[in-house]
């Protein structure tokens, strides 16, 4: 999806189209839900990025804001220096999830073999979709785009390729609302000139190591000896780097998978102290546990391993976890176990981040049997 969160907000506020808009900083409250009056708000009613004070980060930004160098995960204070006149909107994850479900329903209506890759991205295998091979897949891609636009008012960009690796890369070529088709014979002309970072799976640290070896483009990576890459990056990753540079990817489109864990975390507007800010920290801690519990309940999972994550003011991070007897999705149970984890860490320094995680997940349908066998009430 094209600038997904920002695009959803522009449906609510069409008067902001074409303007630099940044989403982030805080969560929209229920009282701030969408209303018919939103589209009539004057520009003077919106908060400007220049007035932001705090340590929040950008969730996403419109393409107009990105032209100023503003991007996802950037601190809002830094973004304010780059684009002070940008409009700042709070995040509304409830709305984003609704639109996510809507666009995925459209995709499945065309191509049911779909892999869900998060709130704004999917892979589909259209090998056996009737008419899916017309014009190398372009006809189907256009139909999907038109269907999503009609159902949601949102645009998307689609990459068509022989495998997931190349399709992911192609989907970024012509944003927004683009369709890019990569054939096997296009590797040398369209993939190899790109920087190595364009391969999904090569991060900044690996890219820095590649550049130190004089490897800057995917084509240069493809010309490396596999043994040399294995020597520098290890057996599995070195071999994968070589395969990726040659556009090889045998991964199937996975239509069903089980989540490993669910978590919620927040970065504070100011550093908080466990003693001086005890009430505020307690309120935030409880809210995080409630949000994780709500996620588990909504998605139909329970978990046994409950943990916390702390980041101190000096950016050091610590984690603690414990495993309880029976899986749960109950907020109070999660809060109690997470609180026990919290007692096992030093709380003498100020904190900048707090997170709660529930892992070792099992489907809710299996948990009822475990509770019955144990003779305990269901913690739902």
UniProtKB/TrEMBL annotation:
One cellular component term from this protein's GO annotations in UniProt: cytosol
Cofactor: Mg(2+)
Gene: dinB
Record-given protein name: DNA polymerase IV
Cofactor note: Binds 2 magnesium ions per subunit.
Organism (species): Extensimonas vulgaris
Keyword tags: Cytoplasm, DNA damage, DNA repair, DNA replication, DNA-binding, DNA-directed DNA polymerase, Magnesium, Metal-binding, Mutator protein, Nucleotidyltransferase, Transferase
Lineage of the organism: Bacteria, Pseudomonadati, Pseudomonadota, Betaproteobacteria, Burkholderiales
Compartmental location: Cytoplasm
Sites annotated Substrate discrimination: 5
Domain UmuC intervals: 1-203
